[in-house]
Design a protein that fits this description.
two-stranded antiparallel ribbon, 438 residues, mainly alpha
């Protein structure tokens, strides 16, 4: 199947006013689509450009500040806007939201939410607090992805993908500029220490490579600009000096190299240039020590290995808790006393994705979590000839595989889940569109 597209607008909603259905206001369906997409992009931009968790200076964005009952300002905005959009959708007699991917993920999602309900009840009996923290970002990402899917059509989904890629890339350029002008942040003096920001930059690399190599009808200006924007995202990740996101980027580029076998030399060349940039930016001794800290975990002479033992101890403590309660875990909103970990006396989670899910959502949650990832990878692989599907497949594997080791669970951050929800919506439209015209 080729990826050179000639598409037309097929999903006009007509001009019937909402006032006849809801009695709220009168606006055409097409205008509503445009306004909803603009609103969604603005909202996504505000999240991408804001820091959800406190950085080295101890500050986070105001949109994530606490409001009431464990909810933040951004949570309330998302809930109200998404509920209103879904109400409009249902008022038109349309109950289905997702198309091609729906049957692949519906069952594991259902069982995961069952595990969430059980974990909430179990955590409540143990005196847990803030029952929403662990799954709030997942729910909001899924909700906003569903709303985004409603208002996407086959006439403009590639343009929306371009917009999101540019949005992420400009943010990376902004952070690189601030780093070059004002200097880096501790502990490694890179341009940013914020994990979700770096993970989104990896998504920018994957999406950009997929667009650049998959869309052949680009104008010359775009053909020159896109590689520069891809490089800005890669540079942000590399210069941030964090091993988790180096691994995300490496896996993402590796998967893209496999998917674009005819362009392997171009991708390998890009990766080589990125490594050269690092070699020219940091002392070789520091680079080698940082790389070896991921190879020789217990080298006490290497200052960059100082946190490795702590990560291993963190995993041992989580395994001890799971051994004590293998079916239900520890529930939501609870903490546990550490036995092996020396740098903290109690913990709420672990830097390992499957163990974290098992710890919080029990054995049912773990099985649903692994099943969901398997189904998503199978879906994306079965449609790997498409442009955006390749981009999401590479990024999805890039963020999943590191969590099998000593990387934090990525789905607790709204900055990650909101972007993933939007990317899933784009892929769902892309697959649905190609099924219709073939």
């Amino acid at each position: 199947m080729g990826t050179h597209l000639h598409y037309t607008h097929r999903e006009g909603l007509g001009a019937q006013s909402l006032s006849r259905r809801l009695g709220i206001f009168s606006i055409s369906g097409i205008t509503l689509k445009s306004l909803a997409l603009v609103f969604s992009l603005v909202l996504l931009g505000s999240v991408v450009y804001s820091r959800e968790f406190p950085g080295p200076d101890g500050t986070a964005s105001l949109i994530y500040s606490h409001l009431a009952f464990g909810f933040r300002w951004i949570d309330v905005v998302l809930l109200i806007s998404s509920s209103f959009a879904l109400l409009i959708h249902m008022s038109r007699g349309r109950l289905r939201v997702w198309g091609a991917i729906r049957k692949w993920i519906l069952a594991p999602i259902f069982w995961f939410w069952v595990s969430v309900s059980i974990a909430m009840l179990y955590g409540f009996t143990l005196g847990g607090e803030n029952m929403f923290y662990e799954w709030r970002a997942i729910a909001l990402g899924l909700l906003m992805g569903s709303v985004f899917r409603i208002f996407l059509s086959s006439g403009h989904f590639y343009r929306v993908a371009y917009s999101i890629f540019i949005l992420i890339s400009l943010h990376s350029l902004l952070l690189l500029g601030r780093w070059a002008w004002f200097g880096g942040v501790p502990p490694f003096n890179g341009p940013t220490f914020d994990g979700p920001t770096l993970s989104n930059a990896v998504a920018g690399v994957s999406l950009g490579v997929a667009i650049f190599l998959g869309k052949r009808n680009q104008k010359r200006l775009w053909r020159l600009t896109i590689p520069f924007l891809i490089a800005s995202n890669a540079a942000l990740v590399l210069l941030a000096w964090r091993r988790t996101y180096w691994m995300e980027l490496l896996i993402t580029i590796g998967v893209l190299t496999i998917l674009y076998n005819r362009n392997r030399l171009r991708i390998i060349g890009f990766a080589t240039i990125s490594v050269v940039v690092i070699l020219l930016t940091f002392p070789k001794e520091a680079i080698w020590a940082r790389v070896m800290s991921a190879v020789n975990l217990f080298d006490e002479t290497n200052p960059y290995s100082s946190t490795n033992i702590g990560h291993v101890e963190d995993v041992l403590d989580a395994m001890l808790q799971i051994q004590r309660s293998p079916i239900l875990g520890i529930g939501l909103g609870t903490t546990y006393e550490t036995i092996y970990t020396r740098w903290k006396t109690e913990s709420w989670g672990v830097h390992n994705g499957p163990l974290h899910v098992w710890l919080r959502f029990g054995l049912l949650g773990l099985l649903a979590y692994l099943w969901f990832h398997w189904r998503v990878i199978s879906f994306l692989w079965s449609h790997r000839q498409l442009v955006l599907t390749r981009g999401l497949l590479a990024y999805w594997l890039g963020i999943f595989i590191p969590t099998l080791f000593f990387s934090p669970w990525p789905y607790g951050a709204l900055q990650n889940t909101l972007l993933l929800g939007v990317l899933f919506a784009l892929v769902d439209v892309e697959v649905t569109y190609w099924r219709r015209i073939i």
